Amino acid sequence: MIVDIKDLRKTYKGGFEALKGVSLGIKEGEILALLGPNGAGKTTLISTICGITNPSAGSVSVGGHDVVKDYRAARSMIGLVPQEINLEPFNKVIDVVTYSRGLFGKKANPAKIEEILKQLSLWDKKDARIMMLSGGMKRRVLIAKALSHEPRVLFLDEPTAGVDVELRKDMWEVVAKLKEQGVTIILTTHYIEEAEAIADRVGVINGGELLLVEEKAALMQRLGQKTLQVDLQAPVESVPESLSAYNLEIAEGGNALRYHYDTSGESTGITRLLGEISAAGLQLKDIQTEQSSLEDIFVGLVKEGAA
Amino acid sequence: MNFTAVWAIYYSEMVRFFRTIAQSFISPVISTSLYFVVFGAAIGSRIDQVEGVSYGAFIVPGLIMLSVMTQALSNASFGIYFPKFIGTIYELLSAPVSFFEIVLGFVGAAATKALFIGVVILATASMFVDVPVTHPWAMILFLVLTCVSFSLFGFIIGVWAGNFEQLQLIPLLVVTPLVFLGGSFYSISMLPPIWQKITLFNPVVYLISGFRWSFFGTADVPVGLSLLAIFGFTALCMGIIWWIFKTGWRIRA
């Protein structure tokens, strides 16, 4: 685990509990997306790992170094791209990026800075002042600053919030390239498509708690789950004996039967089921299917968390 | 020690200074010249000598102190307040640097700028009047310590300030009056007896007196007291900064 978070808690001065005991291990080289609504605690979690806020309890280590006790070693490994565009407006692009490298204690390396700026399509803007850049360009500068000291772990706090579609795609490409280079990436987002497009694992956070962390593939599997609902002419009290193999649920006060199946499976069993329902003497009124999206899973989890 | 980081902070602060080098250079030259026109020519012609020194020369140490103190204060307070204001402080907090290194970078740069301006004023003044420097090493010591201590003080103000008004508040309401009333342009012996006593509560008196002693060899208060005052003030500011960083006051939630 390159990042190891143990029972991390953060209570702000006013008494607001932003993190309620988060534990999470992040594997080297993976892309982890932290999904959650506004105010879920995503930024607090990142800020606490990166040293912007002090933890109230619990511990975080990065590359085996405690972020409080051994902050120099830990922070040297971390690059942070904040959510807000925080840049000195009057400075030149190349200067602010070079500054970041120095601040992290790395020897000046103009060739590396050039490489990073080129990778982010900022090279031809290197002498432009920050205030002359568009919003998307400024965001790239923030990424360039975070990469300037060659971090092994990169935190991206809502990297594509308020960014146009094209830039978002570019950003995803940059993230993919960094992953190839072995950089571990943690990004927060409230766009489910974003997590789906680039993450290896997805964590869902709400109300200061980590509700779930799962391989994206496993989440996608859940995504493949569909539900068939058969509305009946007359209500039933129980599922007929002959249909017991299908694990049916009775819904809508006996007026409907629900059947869960997997579209990725070889056979869904729908044809047989419908045949056996009529063989059991039940009259069909209507049938409908619904697919659980990541959005549903997400909303469901968030609601559970709130309840 | 992360010297690379200290240098990065120092350098980037100095870049801002050099970006406006013309202003940084010209404004003290002009203001010093104006002081000489007003105090030196208009008033000075009526005051013959102060403690055996021509009035024009007498005001030079005070003039330098006035500018150095206000410049150190405003540069250092702005230097740390600006990242707080525009949000770039996140990077300082997430970088592998200790607070000591952050202070060294910001305060070092602010003190350098103040020192530069002090030297420019001294050079400008030398063109108007003959300024003897009796104790050059003491002069340098007082000048550097004043630059450093007021930069430390400015750093504290910058950390404390929640908006631009507060940033101006202490320099304008506290420091400037204390400097003007601290004997920049007069000797304490020129005051009525009761004010001679009251003025001793003004810490700036000790700084200006000691600095003036290094030029002319005469002082309002014993030079040992002046040294004690400047070291004491520096230590006090360092103590407060140490506390700020220990608690993360107004910086780290």
How do you describe this structure in short?
Chain A contains ten helices and 14 strands. With 307 residues, chain A is of the alpha/beta class. The longest helix of chain A has 16 residues, at 165-180.
Describe the structure.
The complex is a heterodimer of chains A (307) and B (253). Chain A has 307 residues and is α/β, with parallel strands linked by helices. Chain A folds into two domains: 218 residues, P-loop containing nucleotide triphosphate hydrolases (Rossmann fold); 67 residues, 2-Layer Sandwich (Alpha-Beta Plaits), CATH 3.30.70. In chain A, 34% of the residues lie in helices and 28% in strands. Chain A is built from ten helices and 14 strands. In chain A, a hairpin with a 4-residue loop joins β12 and β13. Chain B has one domain. Chain B has a two-stranded antiparallel ribbon with strand order 1-2. In chain B, β1 and β2 form a beta hairpin. In chain B, α2 packs antiparallel against α3 and α3 crosses α9. The longest helix of chain B has 32 residues. The model of chain B has no long low-confidence stretch (mean pLDDT 89). At the A-B interface, α2 and α3 of A face α1 and α4 of B.
Let me know the average pLDDT of chain B.
89
**C-alpha-based Rg of chain B, rounded:** 19 Å
Number of DSSP helical runs of chain A: 10
- The general outline of chain B is globular
Strand content of chain B: under 5%
- How many domains make up the 3D coordinates of chain B? 1
Uncertain segments of chain B are none
Largest interface: A-B, 35 and 27 residues
Order of helices and strands of chain A: EEEHEEHEHHHEHEHEEHEEEHEH
| Major beta-sheet overview of chain A | 6 strands, mixed
Which runs of chain A of at least 5 residues are low in confidence (pLDDT < 50)?
Answer: none
- Overall 3D geometry of chain A? elongated
Q: Please state how the strands of the largest beta sheet of chain A are arranged side by side.
A: 6-7-8-3-9-10
Strand residue content of chain A: 25-35%
The assigned CATH architecture of the largest domain in chain A is 3-Layer(aba) Sandwich
